[in-house]
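Lab meeting, action items carried over

1. Structure of the four-component assembly. Owner: GW. Status: complete.
Input record:
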Amino acid sequence: MDISNYLYLSAILFTIGAVGVVVRRNAIVVFMCVELMLNAANLAFVTFSRINGDLVGQVASFFTMVVAACEVVVGLAIIVTMYRSRRSASVDDASLLKR
Amino acid sequence: MTTSSNLVYLIALPLFSSAILLLLGRIADKWGHIVATLVSASTFVIAALEFVSMRQRTGDARAVHQDLFTWISVGTFNVHASLLLDQLSICFVLLISGVGTLIHIYSIAYMSHDHDRRRFFAFLNLFVAAMLLLVLGDSYLNLYVGWEGVGLASYLLIGFWNQKPAYAVAAKKAFVANRIGDVGLSLAIMIAFAQFGTVSFTGVAAGVPHASPAALTALGAMLLLAAAGKSAQFPLQSWLGDAMAGPTPVSALIHAATMVTAGVYLITRSNFVFDASPTAQTMVLIVGGITLLFGALVGTAKDDIKKALAASTMSQIGYMILATGLGPVGYAFAIMHLLTHGFFKAGMFLGAGSVMHGMNDEVNMRRYGAIGKVMPITAVTFGLGYLAIIGVPPFAGFYSKDKIIETAFNAGGTKGILVGGAALLGAAITAFYMTRVIVLTFTGTKRWDDEAHPHESPSLMWIPMVVLAIGSVASGFLFNSGHALVNWLAPVVNASGEHDAKEFLAPLTVSLLALGVVAIGVAIAILKYRSNVAVEAPEDVSILTKIVRRDLLQDDFNDRVLVRPGQALTRFFVAMDNNFIDGIVRGVGGVIAVSSTNLRKIQNGYVRSYALIMVIGVLALIATIWMVTL
Amino acid sequence: MLTAPQISYSLLAPILIVLGGALLGVLVEAVMKKGSRAAIQTAIAIGTLVLSFAYLIRIHGQSSKTAAVDSVAIDGVGIFIQGTILVLSLIAVLYIADTDNFTAQASAVPGSEEERAAVVAGKQQTEVFPLTLFAVSGMLLFPIATDLITLFVALEVLSLPLYLMAGLSRRRRLLSQEAALKYFLLGAFSSAFFLFGAAFLYGYSGSITLDGIATAISANSANDVFLLIGIVFLSVGLLFKIGAVPFHSWTPDVYQGAPTPITGFMAACTKIAAMGATLRIFYVAFGQAEWQWKPIILTIAILTMVVGGIAAIAQRDVKRMLAFSSIAHAGFLLAAVLALNTDGLKGALFYLATYGFTTLGAFGIITLVRDSSGEVTDLNRWVGLGKKSPLVASIFTLFLLSFAGIPLTSGFIAKFSLFTGAYESGNTVVVVVGVLTSAITAFFYLRVVVMLFFTDPKSDSVSVVIPSIMTRAAIAICAIVTIVLGVAPSLLLNTAQTFATFIR
Amino acid sequence: MTIIELVPLLGVIGLFVLPKGSTTLVKQFAIGVSIVDLILSIIMALRFDRSVSAMQFVESRNWISSFGIKYAVGIDGIALVLILMTTVLVPIVLLAGWNESENGRWSPRVYYALILVLETMMVGVFAATDVFLFYVIFEAMLIPVYFLIGGYGRGERAQAAMKFLLYSLLGGLLMLAAVIGTYVIATNQIGATFDVTALSGLHIDSATENMLFLGFFIAFAIKAPLWPLHTWLPTAAKSATPATSVLLLGVLDKVGTYGMIRFCITLFPHAAHTFTPAIIVLSLISILYGAFLAIGQKDINGLIAFTSISHFGFITLGIFAMTSQGLTGASLYMVNHGFSTAALFLVAGWMASRRGSTKIEDFGGLQRVTPVMAWAFFIAGMSALALPGLSSFVSEFLVLVGTFTRYPLAAIIGTTGIVLAALYVLLTVQRSLHGPTTSGNESLSDLNLREKIAIAPVIAILVFFGFFPKPITDVLNPASHQVMTRAGVEDPQPKAGK
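Predicted assembly:
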């Protein structure tokens, strides 16, 4: 199988993630879409690592995973606080700040 | 050329006297008029002394020059404040200081009841100073200072009673009309500098032979425009009638004897330009001819004695301008008429002032009548002036005006007949309207109210009138005896040797013709106004009369052609400034404000739409980079 | 035989010190009693930053080295930016120490009984100090990182604490939490772009170091789709942080919602760190590919200036206004990226420093203007402040004039040196648009001045609290720096000049 | 030189040291400071060498070394007369506007401080020989004026101040771009410098030169309001206090025309030639447009503002005629306009403060009620219409003559402006001074001694230099010559050579 297909997959995943961020209302789902984008990037890293024949890309994907984990911690904390005060996880409800 | 250090006093004395009177204010009320009169008299004495010493010299040495200081010196533009007294200017200096002094004396009495008499005298002195500077300056720019100075003095004096709106308007009108003329003088000076690199009379005269005809014509035309403004010539004549708003001595001094003749001086002084440019000379002739008829016609319909005299002044100056347009032969006669006119017209104005003084400032001649009986001195002096102006021999006007008519006919060809005919016709009309003035005012039946108590004026007033009357009688003869004035002026106006050109009509023929038409004019006037004069001007008159009464529609014309379009233009500009220019600025501001508000709408508070904007941004970036690089 | 990699700890010490301080702060949170935490945390934060700065000065002579196996570069620009960040965060900490700005208990639901109890108990939020230090350590690392992984990690280290800090406001907690949420979601979104771009750059060059990318670019002159995608996506992450249009939408909302001291900290330090990284990436890695990216950066620079300037006009909230103003300033700063020369770099460094001081000063003033319910940021209620408190209004005016770039303030010299660099490189268009936008921005700054001074105060107007000694000192420092650098900029300009170098 | 700049600044410090509460002391102190400055500048003028065309009293210190920016000052004839005008006008306006500071938003102390700061800057801007220094002061000057208009003006003062500042800033920022451009070119050719003399030796390609010229010119054209960039001026003049208006129109706006001579022509002579036709057309439009709008004005301060626009048209006309008469005339015009506008604004201010209105129609018959004030206004008006014998005549005529020798048609059109000048001055005189006394004006008081002392020197100057402008023209001539040499032009020769 042509290795570039992995890149196409990565791009498709990234696009799905980006579209998800734009169209989904639930903060958790939005956040999951971001994670999907990160993973798309990871896939790209690993693919390129394979193409280039070194390990740098794979190492990078590990770093990404760690960072993504940290992001989850912070993100969930924020989303939960938000949910507690509003009883809603919809990002559209958080629209007091505008204009 | 002789140098002298006295000339400056001619100007400095009245100028300082004026400044002091104005600065001291009320303190000087008691003695201000005396100081002013003495100062004026002293200028006459200085002028007389200069005249005497000038006569003792001969040839080029007659002209006196005084260099005071460098006024402006920028690059090659060098103008000294320096004065020149030559055969031409001494005539004017004597006239100005002499008539000026008489009028100062007259005014002491005439203005004795006015609260602001001191100020009046200060203005009079200011005028004398400016007028003397006008005729003494040795360059066009120096002349220009005096030129505008007399304009200012005239403005101040016309508007002396400026609490009356009409008078204030008249003053403004005079100044503005004069300013249009001043534009001409300014441009003339600029042309002179651009052409010759100098603005002094001698420098320009020296450069004239090298200049192109077009430049000279332009120069001449601009000088003529200047003269037309100052001397109330067509088409800038309309201010003079209104200028009669000023106190009568002012009318006599400024608007009859001196200032209004400055145009004649300017053209005579610039004879080298006009002699070199036949086109400019023809323009002068046309302007003079039109004005002399115009003024005369207007004079026939005026009921206001001062305005009648003003119209007459306009007409008489038309004669002078006409004469200057006739070339070297004409200048001397123009000046001669100017001097005799100075006497008789000033005398008549003072006479009119005297009548008004006795008649509670009534100016309508229809309310006069039979005043000769109660004011004999006034009547006699006025009468002598009258005889002079209509040109009855041997009074002054006969000599000067006949010479002009004669010279006009002798100009040759169609031109000669045209201008000569105009001059002759003017003489007839002059005779008509002046007779009308005399008949309406001094003879006939009394038409004034009982409240008026006409009485002879005090001696301070009638003495100047008598002096001027003597001048009206004798001056013409004196000037003409042995061509005294012609010869005197010859070095200045280059008139030598041209006098014996071919004659179209003999002098005697001209005199007889003139006397003939004058007699006709007088006769008609007497017949028409001998009796049955209505106190109110009749309304059922021909359309022609109405037009003449409206000063031949000069104001209507100005109103339609200048004032209203000017006002419309002003309104247009104001609207343009508020709406268009500021509007553009506001428009730009508005566009920014609107875009700002719209940008606020994009900031709608929804995270998802922010993310969408980012995505769109990314896509746009990719698209851009794609287009640029591939 | 494997050898341990050479780390050069001494060169990394400033970052390590800050990290250490942060960890210490966490320990303090865990161990110490509530009452004494605030003072200790303040002391630790200030001490850490001072120590770090001192260490930075010690090592600044050794610049132009790489450390940690070439993953960070200790060069002129890095040192300068680190120094600026340290000084500015020190000032920010002075504001933060005024803990009245932070929620008593972040976990309590706004308006709940629990929150009221916490307030009554006099509880004070002190987690903000270690968070700040963590963010600072990320900021210190971000501009000196020379490989894509370090960059990404540093980006997250600086961002994650900020997401939290944005939600810690004592008053208007709903807004604050919303700001945190928006900042977090969009920040994570942009991080994903950054990472995706990094992956493609790695794919293009086979290296994750900036040097390697630069080498690859100079080796292949042909356009490569990987390179283009890499540049665009990586730029998105960076442009998001510096708040460039169209990646700016978070700025006004977050600036408005976050506690004002944090807003100041973000506006000044984050922007400097992000700008430092941007400059490094574009100068070092993409320098050879300028024909590919210059058009888009030019477009974005112009868009950023214009949109920032225009949108600010209609703002009614002073913090939102300053947010848009910071967007416009980001546009100006992008001119330095376009310049791609030493003068541009010098200008940018000077600009960042002066802008940081002015911004912190301005936000400091905002913390002082209050009514009974807390800070008042509605501009309409600032009307007539000049009458009530001339000194505060005057100092605020000074900052505004500096923003507007009026001569004799530091902002003017900054603008001048920045545009000089841009002009030198032939980017006349950006200079002209820049000066025109400056006029637009001047309009809304001056409108505030009009409100402050030329309009009469309304009855319901606000009061100016007497600031604590620390806030007072912070504002004073900012004001003095703004004036001094306006009148005698040589002090800093010469430094910026000597430090305006990158190593690869 | 520096001392003259510093004295007012020290005065400002002094102002704040003075004990609180005593307004009179503050006023006396400020006037004292400005008089000391006047004396110093007169001493400088006496030591000025008229035979030298180079800069004198030169001082130079490094300021921002990394850009080659220097604190460099020095004066030539044009700068000298403008500085003198400034130092003369400041004490006069302070004395004239004795009570103006009391109705402001802030204390008189601030008012006097602002004016003294402004004086420092005004002197500095004319003396600066470093383009950057010039620019810095040029822009910084806006701030005190902004506060003077906004804080002590009347009517829509905040908006007026805003409009003024935005216009000026916009121009200033365009100029900044041009300054940067010039600097970059200098760096490439001769090294980092902002010295105006050094910069004038640059070789710039013509497209760039044109752009740079425009950058400078637009800034100056806004400052010196040239049509159509003038609309801020009437608004500002209507709102500012008389003293501020005098300094704004009399001095600050001169920086615009001064800059055209000092920078536009000197640095970019070729571009100056390229744009001359356009600028002359704009000048002519300004002359006529300003005059027409002056005629249509109902507000007395607006009227003065529009007359100034007309006069600035003359000044730019003279400058870009590029003849020695035009340049010297224009420089002289700047001074004369300063004084005649000062007279107009001060008297108009007194009239307005007495009557409580600035509408021309509210006056009327003042000649009878307050003769001295009426006379002062009249003389100022005469100066505005350039009556011979007053100094403005000399300058206006020089400008026109200078223009005529090169562009006759422009001079002819410009000359018609003098008729309009007569109209707008006399119409105003007629409406405000003449006619019957309008009700409400019967009991207005005439000028008091302080006001007389303030206005007398202005009128004396107008009259004296009308008759004897040589002291000024002698100082200006070498400077004009220098400018023309730099621009590579010579006076046209008389056409009819001898």
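2. GW to write a short summary for the group page. Key points so far: The longest helix of chain A spans residues 56-86. Chain A touches chain C through 48 residues (CB under 8 Å).
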